[in-house]
Amino acid sequence: NNRLASRVNTLTPSTTLAITAKAKEMRESGIDVIGLGAGEPDFNTPENILSAAIDSMKDGKTKYTPSGGLLELKDAVIAKLERDQGLTYERGEVMIGVGAKHVLYTLFQVTLNPGDEVIIPTPYWVSYPEQVKLAGGVPVHIEGTTAANFKVTAEQIENAVTDKTKAIIINSPGNPTGMIYTREELESIVQVCKEKDILIVSDEIYEKLIYDGNEHISPAQLSEDAKKRTLIINGVSKSHSMTGWRIGYVAGDAEIVKAMTNLASHSTSNPTTTAQYAALEAYNGPQDTVEEMRKDFEARLDKVHPQLAEIPGFHVLKPQGAFYLLPDVTEALEKTGFANVDDFAAALLTEANVAIIPGSGFGAPNTIRLSYATSIELIEEAIRRIHQFVKDNW
Ligand code: PLP
Fold first, then answer.
1. How many whole angstroms from 100 Cα to the centroid of ligand 1?
2. pLDDT tier at 83 (50, 70, 90 boundaries)?
3. Which of 54, 150, 291, 298 is a plausible cystine mate for 211, CB 3.0–4.6 Å?
4. Which residue in 140, 135, 134, 104 sits closest to 120, CA to CA?
């Protein structure tokens, strides 16, 4: 079909959104489906943030803002980076965008030339390779194995670098892995990035969802050189339960941020003004709701992780952050006879009425992803159903 540009030929819809849509359709036709596909917190946005948004509208703050975002919001992000990570940035090094997803999209558009390679560790968040390809770049995958807690080493990165390598994406805490890179691991990674002179795209969207006393470190915190080559990507979606508001940001190199802002001025103009005022309150207002939500997620994880681990043929590491569980189901597939995780997920949805996401979309075809961003009762019931489903097919 020559109506479509060739750049969308290989574009596939996000697997996460596709399964979620199918589950919703089944639910609407009266089937009792439990969805563990969600990529968003199940809490409403905190009350103080809702009020700030309403007040801003009533004050007439309903017009365009600067393309890179409200200056007050940039300042709030700068204050947050200083407060949480001890990092100092200037306004010219920060851009507010339409969610972390579109900020990443814009970043790849302004940094990649045709054929430029971006190293993406597996398992990865579904949109990274698609966005890199849309910008003319080439995703290069290196494997974070189950044995290595789904993380990659500096050595693997070094071996993957070619003269075309432009950047590496580090997502810690990770989606779908829930794993966190330690300071020591990041130190050796930034060392390689310095030697090979590559950019570090650090997706820190799950920064606030960390359990068991683990610590979030940004590569940008490790040295002046690391800070210069790191683009921090973050936003309010997961930390403040604000996925629908679509506010994210980048902090990093001024030249790149300026190009991103120029591109935004011709694509989005600015993120929705009301949402920016909401985000302003999210960063400047009280942070206790962030911690309350984190605690709630941690309690769910502690409760359901052992239940999932009991399912025959499931091997599941305990995640350190985010809100996903990623069991390796290689043995369960062998014993139940499903050819792959896609077939397993499809049968699980139609026969046991549980929606999970097959890891094939994350470059981890031996895994399935379950989100625990739903009530504990529903997660427990879903795990019971999965357990029964596996036993019935064994
Ligand atoms: N990065 C990762 C790893 C994510 O999981 C998500 C959301 O699912 C995003 C970025 C996008 O977040 P936002 O809602 O800010 O676009």
1. 6
2. very high
3. 298
4. 140
Ligand 1 atom nearest the C-alpha of 39 is: 8
**Distance between CA 77 and CA 72 in Å, rounded?**
9
Q: Read off the pLDDT of each residue in 332-358 and give the average, rounded to a whole number.
A: 95
Token pair for 264 = 């935004």
Q: What is the pTM of this model?
A: 0.97
| Tens-place pLDDT, residues 153-204 | 999 999 999 999 999 999 999 999 999 999 999 999 999 999 999 999 999 9
The response to whether residue 100 sits with its C-beta less than 6 Å from ligand 1 reads yes
Number of Cβ atoms within 10 Å of the Cβ of 312? 12
Q: Establish whether this prediction's ipTM goes over 0.90.
A: yes
Residue in 237, 268, 272 to alter for ligand 1 test, most ligand atoms within 8 A of Cβ: 237
Q: Domains in the chain and their CATH numbers? A: 6-44+289-393 (3.90.1150.10), 63-284 (3.40.640.10)
Distance (Å, rounded) from C-alpha 146 to C-alpha 317? 8
